[in-house]
Write a structure and sequence with these properties.
Layout (H helix, E strand, L loop, with lengths): L14 E6 L16 E5 L2 E7 L12 E6 L4 E10 L17 E7 L13 E4 L10 E3 L4 E2 L5 E7 L2 E13 L2 E6 L15
Antiparallel strand pairs: 1-2, 3-6, 4-5, 4-7, 5-6, 8-12, 9-10, 10-11, 11-12
Length: about 190
């Protein structure tokens, strides 16, 4: 059988059939909805919201990981957009959670099982090339001249150790003592 060109549709590939609405032989000229099927084509994107206070350092082009916890599957992705702050409950935008809308793109072909599923997105805004010394963020203090220090507690004595700070994550900050060897893993510091 040869089909007339008017009955053939060429879709971009790869494409995923999401639904088939019309049965074979359906007369679409009298149908209330002339949709035959719905296709999902192109790269997969994941949209989410970055909470206020966590948006610093996020920019387009950063590496991300998208994980489907239900199947323990992860895919590499890239941040493709970070929008301006949107308040929750904005009827015009449909935003349900306040924050900064973010889109990440997975360059691989679409995974049918992931469509409409809740996934976890991890965006790496900074990393160290080796293990580093960290202290609780509340342990680092500043002098009037802008330099930073921690207070080391050794029994009943306390002393200030000048430090340079680095990356901050999960309530901890990277610290490097100005004087080499002045701090080591396990050194007790005063917090608060």
């Amino acid at each position: 059988m040869i089909l007339p060109l008017s009955e053939v549709v060429f879709a971009p590939m790869p494409a995923l059939v999401q639904s088939v609405v019309a049965a074979v032989g359906t007369d679409l000229s009298s149908a209330s909805d002339p949709t035959i099927m719905t296709l999902a084509a192109g790269t997969m994107t994941v949209q989410g919201v970055v909470p206020t206070g966590s948006q610093d350092g996020i920019a387009t082009g950063l590496a991300a990981t998208v994980t489907d916890d239900a199947t323990a599957t992860s895919k590499a992705a890239t941040v493709t957009s970070l929008g301006a702050y949107q308040a929750a409950g904005d009827a015009a935008t449909g935003v349900q959670t306040a924050g900064y809308p973010v889109t990440v793109t997975i360059p691989e072909a679409m995974m049918a099982s992931w469509i409409g599923r809740n996934v976890r997105v991890r965006i790496v805004v900074g990393a160290t090339s080796a293990k580093v010394l960290v202290a609780p963020l509340t342990a680092v203090r500043s002098n009037d001249d802008g330099t930073s220090f921690v207070v080391v507690v050794d029994g009943s004595t306390q002393r200030q150790i000048a430090v340079r700070t680095g990356l901050v994550a999960a309530g901890e900050v990277e610290v490097t003592p100005v004087e080499s060897g002045a701090l080591s893993a396990g050194t007790k510091v005063r917090v608060g």
